[in-house]
Amino acid sequence: MDIKHRTWLMISFLFMCLSLEFHVSSGADTISANQSLSGDQTILSAGGAFRFGFFKPGNSSNYYIGMWYDKISLQTIVWVANREKPVSDKYSSVLRISDGNLVLFDESKVPVWSTNITSTTTSSLEAILLDEGNLVLRELSGNSSTSLWESFDHPAHTWIPGMKMRLDKRTKVSQRLISWKNVEDPAPGLFSLELDPNGSNSYFILWNGSQSHRYWSSGPWNENQKLFDDVPEMTQNYIYDFSFFSNETESYFTYSVKNTSTIISRFYMDVTGQIKQANWLDSTKSWFLFWSQPRQQCEVYDYCGAFGRCSEQTQKSCDCLQGFQRKSEHDWSLQDYSGGCERKTQLQCQNNSAANGKSDKFLTNSNMALPENPQSVAVRSVDECETTCLKNCSCTAYAYEDSQCSIWSGNLLGVQQGASDGKTLYIKLAASEFSSPKSKRGTVIGVVVGSVALVVLLGLVVFLYLRRRKKTIKTTKAVEGS
Ligand SMILES: *[C@@H]1O[C@H](CO)[C@@H](O)[C@H](O)[C@H]1NC(C)=O
Ligand SMILES: *[C@@H]1O[C@H](CO)[C@@H](O)[C@H](O)[C@H]1NC(C)=O
Ligand SMILES: *[C@@H]1O[C@H](CO)[C@@H](O)[C@H](O)[C@H]1NC(C)=O
Ligand SMILES: *[C@@H]1O[C@H](CO)[C@@H](O)[C@H](O)[C@H]1NC(C)=O
Ligand SMILES: *[C@@H]1O[C@H](CO)[C@@H](O)[C@H](O)[C@H]1NC(C)=O
Ligand SMILES: *[C@@H]1O[C@H](CO)[C@@H](O)[C@H](O)[C@H]1NC(C)=O
Ligand SMILES: *[C@@H]1O[C@H](CO)[C@@H](O)[C@H](O)[C@H]1NC(C)=O
Ligand SMILES: *[C@@H]1O[C@H](CO)[C@@H](O)[C@H](O)[C@H]1NC(C)=O
Ligand SMILES: *[C@@H]1O[C@H](CO)[C@@H](O)[C@H](O)[C@H]1NC(C)=O
Ligand SMILES: *[C@@H]1O[C@H](CO)[C@@H](O)[C@H](O)[C@H]1NC(C)=O
User: Fold this and answer.
1) CB of 7 closer than 6 angstroms to any ligand 6 atom
2) What is the side-by-side order of every strand in the sheet holding 185-195?
3) Ligand 3 probe mutation, 82, 106, 116, 173, most atoms within 8 A of CB
4) Which atom of ligand 4 approaches the CA of 143 most closely?
5) Which of 20, 145, 178, 233 is most buried by a 10 A CB count?
6) The organism sits in which domain of life (predicted)?
7) Above 70 in pLDDT, residue 330?
């Protein structure tokens, strides 16, 4: 068995060497017009900083084509081509140059991603992975080459040194750094970073690409101090160089690392809705979080979804308001809380045949930051405020502060627990939700009674068994004795 084990080890070692050789032999930094990339094949940038090929994020069953650091043991994706269109089999999918573009064909030979440029060139093309982490499609003529398309112009969620996050002032369109949908899905999520399209030289973080749902701003670039006004911690130092460029047609911010052989650094728009900067620490083989904004998780717009509750005090930032449950357990487990929560029990007022004596009630939630979009109602007392909400079926909650009545209709967004100047929010729930503690106690009693009964029953069985056995033994003895 030992020998068998050793043989197996040797075979797998040999196999590893073989597959290693395969990688190295295909480890060029270019895909030329007559080549293709498929399965485990990858290309490696000339200095060995970045690798490009198929990858599978986490436990996902989907494959994507993208780029990651080669010198880092923890696979960290910096760019993804087919963010929204994964392939299911990397061996029958092919990336190659086709009709003047770099195109990914899926297992059915259907193009799912393309550099999508219209070029009229007839000369030879190649795709090259540069050591700064830029994939370039270029045209070769003689010994010179012209870039036709660059991954640096099509950012995914990561902003690496040398990349420019641009605003085209003529079209007022900004490039966006967009978060992943969840930790295993690189499809564009809800959070994005971009330069103000109005040209204020500030970066904004937006929710769902909407300027009216902007929840963080860097403040304008300050050319004298070489930093953004609301990011004073971003001072020039011995590690980075930051610069901001602006002329009539475009503006952009870029940064570089002074010594790229010692520092691996990246900015990324995280699934948490925060822009983060992290540096690789070789000693611990992990990313060290250097900086992140907005600093408080609960400042991220609608982070916990409808009827979710955000808290800075607990390790898990999101949970559901009492009386509500997670809409999608699966999404929540992948850190996508945007689906929020749903009622455990429908409100009575939503039931047309609601004449069963029970009306809806309000649950008192204290120490809360109140939800988005309140509507104020002119009433004279807290009772009148409550009645207003109770009578209107679309009303889901009310608050009464400083003789001001506010009501909310529909989804409750941005509820935060344990806010500094906590307020009291009264949330409408079905009356049956209020008897649940009682039924819980009932269950506990039931369990206790059940256990006691079981013990008694077991005791009885054992007792009867022993008695019978004693009797049997006695009988046997009697027989033996005779
Ligand atoms: C592929 O093309 C390159 C130049 O574009 C050439 O040097 C190479 O020999 C070609 N390889 C094959 C297998 O045709
Ligand atoms: C993948 O699945 C395994 C086992 O089911 C689990 O332990 C692990 O945490 C999962 N990884 C991720 C990234 O979800
Ligand atoms: C290429 O661009 C066109 C229009 O700009 C778009 O309709 C098409 O879906 C794109 N194709 C791919 C494969 O991205
Ligand atoms: C091509 O390379 C040769 C030598 O390597 C050089 O003499 C020539 O000027 C180059 N041509 C162009 C167009 O750069
Ligand atoms: C841009 O400026 C216009 C006019 O001043 C204003 O209406 C608009 O809201 C601004 N947009 C943003 C994104 O700030
Ligand atoms: C995001 O915005 C789009 C329209 O731009 C809308 O269709 C979509 O429902 C929005 N997503 C969410 C989660 O609200
Ligand atoms: C602005 O700068 C870019 C280079 O970053 C250049 O291509 C462009 O022509 C410049 N525009 C003007 C109006 O000078
Ligand atoms: C970068 O760091 C390495 C290792 O510390 C050092 O040998 C090299 O001289 C540095 N390069 C620069 C440009 O400072
Ligand atoms: C509406 O009320 C009726 C009668 O009380 C009940 O049978 C039914 O399940 C209720 N429906 C909902 C959606 O609560
Ligand atoms: C209920 O509240 C909504 C939203 O505040 C309002 O539009 C509607 O008119 C109200 N309905 C009644 C019957 O008051």
Assistant:
1) no
2) 177-182, 185-195, 203-207, 210-217
3) 116
4) 1
5) 178
6) Eukaryota
7) yes
